[in-house]
Amino acid sequence: MPEKVIQFGEGNFLRAFVDWQFNELNKNGLFNGKIVVVQPLPDGMIETINEQDGLYTLLLRGLNCGKSIEKTEIITSINRGINPYLDWRGFLKCAANTNLRYVVSNTTEAGIAYIKSSFPRDECPSTFPAKVTAFLYERFKLFNGETGKGMIFLPCELINNNGSTLKEYVFKHAEDWNLGAGFNNWIEKENYFCNTLVDRIVPGYPKDEHDKITERLGYEDKIIVAAELFHLWVIQGDENIKDEIPFADAGLNVIWTDDIQPYRTLKVRILNGAHTTLTIPSFLAGNDTVKESVDDKIIGKFIEEAIFKEILPVLNFPDKMKEEYAKNTIERFQNPFIYHYLISISLNSVSKYKVRVLPTVLEYYKIYKRLPEVLIFSFAALIIFYKQLKSNNDEIKLREHRVNDDPNVITFFNNLSKENNYEAVIKMTLSNVSFWETDLNQIEGITEKVTRYYQLINKVGMQNAILQLLKK
Question: pLDDT tens for residues 159-210?
């Protein structure tokens, strides 16, 4: 098969998400194309990928309608890999391939970054946008700006407007390097930078199970990758691009849309919002993982109340769509093959609450003229967690832990730890505009409600406090 895709990144996510989907297209006779993988950093896995002829094993595991499923497949969509730091000219030669049409990437959130640099002549630039600009300029020169020789970009980095941001940085490099108006016009007219949203949990290489899996497979695979069953790829692009790569015809959960933001809201509010809401209360109640949390009768009911009674009602989506996504979320949390540790998820919980949960709180209050109980309870738990409160009741034990967050956040709560007046602690936290972009004390009733739950947790412990909350 000809190489039709150039991929920046060789990590677990792309191989378990994008490369698997192109493999599905090929299996169904819908694409007939291979991928050439470009190593984005000086150190990487390209040598190992080439040693295995681009082949690797994908292990898909999870729950489907409550039934445990495990599927194993050898992925054959990668043709070869290139390390541009060792073979810059070999990388640029890819630009001459008339079959090449698609660019996919996952260079981490920090990968789509602009750093002013000189035009790369014989040496690989450090940033992803600079590599892309050099590649596109080479292609522009080789084909004299010919119509139909542009590329379709499908970046998978987890930043908002990933395609638009990449395009902006390509134009910045073009300006820095004086590549000319003709090149800029060709970029604008012949190249498509799609914004995308990706969703699949990929634990990666199952090192703890290596020996057992190798024995079962009957062969050694140095880059085997494990992932959950669920996948979603939302792509903001026009109908012409959709017709070129018919993911849906292969039964893949790929949605083409002219506005990606509603889908981002759906994911952030339900999946990420639920994660943030349950993490600290569940951890302080004695659980260690997301699965333990949803299996726990008390915490399980707690998070269901948050999702179905407080988050979904304020989301402006068809009921069937948002309820199906919510049910999938619960089932994904119950995946017995994924160990998602709460203490890891608790990283940067202040900013996570602001982005993932607080908008729901504000919209709920605006619509119903009252505050959502579970989400506010979670807020009180967050303050206790960050202040590292020691209960006044000797019989109540709140778990010891280490808080990980921005130094400014840590400093704020360290200063609060000296404050014994809990009402003052809560008011100061709610009024921190640098956290929430507003003084939350101005919302009627929120200060009193957070204070009430703060006192309750301190008095009776997390589990008993949640039980009292759920009896309301």
Answer: 889 999 999 999 999 999 999 999 999 999 999 999 999 999 998 888 888 8
What type of residue sits at position 364?
Y
Q: Residue 398 pLDDT more than 70? A: no
Distance of CA 192 to the CA centre of its chain: 23
Sequence-distant (6+) residues with CB within 8 A of 342 are: 279, 280, 282, 283, 287, 288, 289, 290, 293
Domains and CATH numbers, the chain: 3-257 (3.40.50.720), 266-470 (1.10.1040.10)
